[in-house]
């Protein structure tokens, strides 16, 4: 019996030892150590065997619950609601369209107070509006109102932060809860959360804001604008960096980034991870910790090496020699490098989740930028390598078009904002995305002229159409004697015999009335006399009597034969968007006097075709009257039916330029050539002519 008990005890003991030997680890994990089990759940993931799985991350980072300085989703939502109390605003609900019916789209800026602080950037915005064709000094005529209070920087730690905005705007009698107001903003929120808090209630105002978060953005109402620096040019702006010989599109570097690395706070996650894609060859991703007052307190083990590598490369050199540029979010969603990449033809690779891209309502960014995901950073190199070279070149060309059309100056950014608002007032006459995203762009393809692609000379190929087969001769008569001279009679006869001539218009700019009809030559085409002023700018007024696509602009002393007119018109029909003519001039930069010069010398180069004898497109927006009559008589006041280049000259150009031309009584052809070149990005075309394009005029 004792022996039997002994064998049973030994068997039980051996079984227990075998159980612990082969299955003890599982028991320790799942059965007995409940306290450790609960702790493991709280600190998931916990790698139990580090020798089997090498860790590429700091265990403290894996087990942390995130940056405690970042607001929770509930706090972010509460902050947005505090700013956008009218978050459901739409044009139909928060905009008074009746204010725009009588006087059209007019913009009024509030008068500025003497002691009111104004940043340089906001001063440029107000100047752009006040120089635009939509500005009115009369608030009774206004459709849209702009505050004179600087609202660009709403970071209360900034020296440009304006306090007590709420109290000030409520005292304005025109405020009306923000209705029909447009508010500009570049910076919102402050350290550490950088919420979109503006520090005042915008009410029902439209917000034109940089770094716009998609969850705060009110589609069809707000407008996302780019973040630009105080040094951004007021007008003009520098040209893009892509030149015609920039082929092939592949450059020294495939993908680059050089910028600050935030060690803590919002925006630090994305920039801290950029070093993972750096290979030092065709992908260069450099960051530095040296920014802020206390960066050394938060420096990590990578900071010293990053700071050294950061100084080895020049930022401008990287922009010039890279195909793609990473544009990660900073403290806010937008950054200056977005516009820098556009100008440099470095295709932006956007890593800023939730960013409403600038003017996305009008611009198709899928043709000019790569929109990435911050969480998929490691896939970016392989994604951009897969883009075909032809597609890369198309991206680069589109960056240059967008930069030049909408972003190269403060004027263009502001005018684009205004045009988007104007398009919303009459949706049936608004520009299509095609017009916004192809040359010459939305700022020049104005809907007041037309929204039909077939009416534009730039889109004949895409539309499968062409210009009309007839032209209108437009002769300006300003002789001091105010009488019919032989040169103008011969000119009318030669032009009227052209097989392509549809009508002849004579702008009689003398104080005396035109001669009676019996003294004018008999022509096979209608001859119409329009009485005008002695202003050179009248030559390009959008007269409704012009019924053809082509206009042949002539001076009264121009000497042309019928064959020369026919040949020039045939050439123009092949290039309907350009100026095609006979007499030419050249402009040049005089380095000694540091100013532009103008020469009439016969050379092998030209940059200007004089409108004394030239064809150009008048662009019809609709059908007008057939003419003021076949015989001479004073014409009624011309209606405002647009003629494309005529309308651009009369309405789009700043009034100061037209007044300068009228004051000098010269240079109108230079101004028209510059205007057409700015629209088409193409030079004029010269056709053959005789050495003398004018008749000899006797001394008066």
Q: What labels describe this entry?
A:
about 30% helix, single chain, alpha/beta, about 700 residues, elongated, five-stranded parallel sheet, 21 helices
Task: State the share of residues found in helices, binned by percent.
Answer: 25-40%
Cα shape: elongated
Q: Total strand count, please? A: 22
Structural class: alpha/beta
Cα separation of the termini: 153 Å
Profile the largest sheet: 7 strands, mixed
Identify low-pLDDT runs.
Answer: 27-70, 620-642, 695-700
Report the sheet-strand fraction: 5-15%
Count of DSSP helices?
21
Mean pLDDT: 80
Q: Enumerate the strands of the largest sheet in spatial order, edge to edge or round the barrel.
A: 15-14-13-16-21-17-22
Backbone CA Rg = 35 Å
Keywords: Disulfide bond, Endoplasmic reticulum, Glycoprotein, Glycosyltransferase, Membrane, Signal-anchor, Transferase, Transmembrane, Transmembrane helix
Domain Glycosyl transferase: 481-619, 643-698
Organism: Eudyptes chrysocome (Western rockhopper penguin)
Protein name: Exostosin-1c
Task: Tell me what the structure shows.
- The protein is of the alpha/beta class.
- The protein contains 21 helices and 22 strands.
- The strands form 5 sheets. The chain has a 7-stranded mixed sheet, with helices on one face. The protein has a 5-stranded parallel sheet with strand order 1-2-4-6-7, covered by helices on one side.
- Strand 18 (584-590) and strand 19 form a beta hairpin.
- Helix 6 packs across helix 14 and helix 11 (337-343) packs across helix 13.
- The chain is elongated.
- The chain starts with a helix and ends in a 14-residue tail after the last strand.
């Amino acid at each position: 019996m004792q022996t039997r008990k002994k064998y049973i005890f030994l068997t039980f003991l051996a079984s227990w030892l075998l159980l612990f030997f082969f299955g003890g680890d599982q028991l320790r994990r799942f059965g007995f150590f409940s306290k450790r089990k609960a702790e493991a759940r709280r600190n998931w993931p916990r790698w139990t065997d580090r020798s089997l799985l090498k860790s590429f991350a700091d265990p403290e980072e894996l087990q942390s619950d995130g940056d405690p300085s970042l607001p929770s989703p509930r706090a972010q939502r509460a902050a947005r609601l505090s700013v956008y109390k009218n978050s459901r605003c739409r044009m139909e609900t928060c905009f008074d369209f009746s204010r725009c019916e009588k006087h059209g789209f007019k913009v009024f800026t509030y008068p500025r107070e003497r002691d009111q602080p104004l940043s340089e950037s906001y001063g440029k915005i107000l100047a752009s509006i006040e120089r635009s064709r939509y500005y009115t000094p009369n608030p009774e005529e206004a459709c849209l109102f702009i505050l004179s209070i600087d609202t660009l920087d709403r970071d209360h730690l900034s020296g440009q932060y304006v306090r007590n905005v709420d109290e000030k705007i409520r005292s304005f009698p025109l405020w009306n809860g923000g209705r029909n107001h447009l508010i500009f903003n570049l910076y919102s929120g402050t350290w550490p959360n950088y919420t979109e808090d503006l520090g005042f209630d915008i009410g029902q105002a439209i917000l034109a804001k940089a770094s716009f978060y998609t969850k705060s953005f009110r589609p069809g109402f707000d407008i996302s604008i780019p973040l630009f620096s105080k040094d951004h040019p007021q007008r003009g702006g520098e040209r893009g960096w892509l030149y015609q010989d920039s082929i092939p599109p592949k450059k020294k570097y495939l993908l680059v980034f050089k910028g600050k690395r935030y060690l803590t706070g919002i925006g630090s996650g994305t920039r801290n991870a950029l070093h993972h894609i750096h290979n030092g060859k065709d992908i260069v991703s450099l960051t530095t910790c040296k920014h802020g007052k206390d960066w050394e307190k938060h420096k990590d083990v990578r900071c010293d090496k990053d700071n050294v590598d950061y100084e080895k490369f020049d930022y401008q050199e990287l922009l010039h020699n890279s195909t793609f540029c990473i544009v990660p979010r900073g403290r806010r969603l937008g950054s200056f490098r977005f516009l820098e990449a556009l100008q440099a033809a470095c295709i932006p690779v956007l890593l800023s989740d939730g960013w409403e891209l600038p003017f996305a309502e009008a611009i198709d960014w899928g043709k000019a930028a790569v929109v990435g995901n911050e969480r998929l950073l490691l896939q970016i190199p392989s994604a951009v390598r897969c883009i075909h070279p032809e597609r890369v070149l198309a991206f680069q060309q589109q960056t240059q078009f967008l930069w030049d059309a909408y972003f190269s100056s403060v004027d263009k950014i502001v005018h684009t904002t205004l045009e988007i608002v104007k398009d919303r007032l009459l949706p049936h006459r608004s520009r299509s995305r095609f017009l916004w995203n192809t040359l010459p762009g939305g700022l020049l393809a104005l809907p007041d002229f037309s929204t039909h692609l077939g009416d534009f000379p730039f889109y004949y190929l895409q539309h499968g159409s062409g210009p009309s087969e007839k032209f209108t001769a437009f002769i300006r008569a300003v002789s001091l004697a105010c009488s019919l001279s032989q040169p103008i009679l011969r000119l009318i006869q030669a032009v009227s015999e052209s097989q392509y001539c549809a009508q002849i218009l004579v702008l009689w700019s003398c104080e005396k009335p035109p001669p009676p009809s019996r003294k004018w030559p008999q022509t096979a085409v209608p001859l119409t006399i329009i009485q005008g002023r002695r202003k050179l700018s009248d030559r390009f007024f959008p007269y409704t009597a012009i019924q053809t696509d082509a206009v042949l602009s002539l001076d009264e002393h121009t000497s042309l034969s019928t064959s020369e007119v026919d040949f020039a018109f045939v050439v123009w029909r092949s290039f309907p968007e350009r100026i095609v003519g006979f007499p030419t001039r050249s402009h040049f930069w005089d380095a000694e006097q540091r100013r532009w010069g103008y020469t009439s010398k016969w050379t092998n180069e030209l940059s200007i075709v004089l409108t004394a004898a030239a064809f150009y497109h008048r662009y019809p927006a609709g059908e007008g009257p057939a003419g003021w009559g076949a015989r001479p008589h004073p014409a009624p006041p011309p209606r405002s039916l647009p003629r494309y280049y005529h309308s651009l000259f009369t309405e789009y150009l700043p009034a100061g330029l037209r007044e300068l031309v009228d004051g000098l009584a010269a240079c109108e052809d230079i101004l028209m050539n510059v205007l057409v070149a700015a629209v088409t990005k193409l030079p004029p075309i010269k056709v053959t002519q005789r050495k003398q394009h004018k008749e000899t005029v006797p001394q008066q």
